[in-house]
Design goal:
The protein is mainly alpha-helical and about 160 residues long. Helix content is about 70%, strand content about 10%.
């Protein structure tokens, strides 16, 4: 058996994740109920449900998106009366976003079924591979976050 060089192995992982990213995005979208808001909007509603009222900055951090993206999401969800915005009482320069009753109802209808449907793909893996993913994924996620922060601070 020929040993794969470190660089060849890293290149193969990059290629695999380059395929995985879009496939995962398409899968999560395909599992979104037709009566629901988009997956990213559901995630924002879920972040508010779990974390309570939050600033736009907090939401951007929680979702891993830009503040501009959060602004667009909040505007769309606000237009549908699923969230509401108000000035931050602690800092008048920022905005606090809250989940409305309609937003909570929308989330209740969609979130759990969506998560269950998405999770079905992991059932295609043997239990040992599921366990490996559960061990590896948080480590990889943290490594990505650290490298992103380092790169972002170097660019500043």
């Amino acid at each position: 058996m020929v040993r794969q060089s470190t660089q060849a192995r890293l290149d193969a992982l990059v290629a695999a994740f380059t395929e995985l990213g879009p496939a995962w995005g398409h899968w999560t979208s395909a599992c979104t109920p037709t009566t629901s808001v988009s997956y990213i909007r559901m995630r924002l509603l879920h972040a508010l449900e779990c974390g309570g009222d939050q600033t736009m900055t907090d939401l951007a951090r929680a979702l891993g998106v830009t503040q501009r993206r959060v602004t667009d999401l909040v505007e769309a969800l606000g237009a549908d009366q699923l969230v509401e915005r108000r000035p931050n009482p602690k800092d008048g320069r920022s905005t606090v976003v809250s989940l409305t009753r309609a937003g909570a109802d929308q989330l209740k209808l969609s979130w759990q079924q969506h998560q269950t449907d998405i999770g079905k793909v992991f059932g295609d893996l043997p239990p040992e591979q599921q366990k490996q993913l559960l061990e590896i994924t948080p480590v990889l996620t943290e490594a990505i976050r650290k490298r992103t922060a380092t790169r972002s601070s170097a660019d500043a």
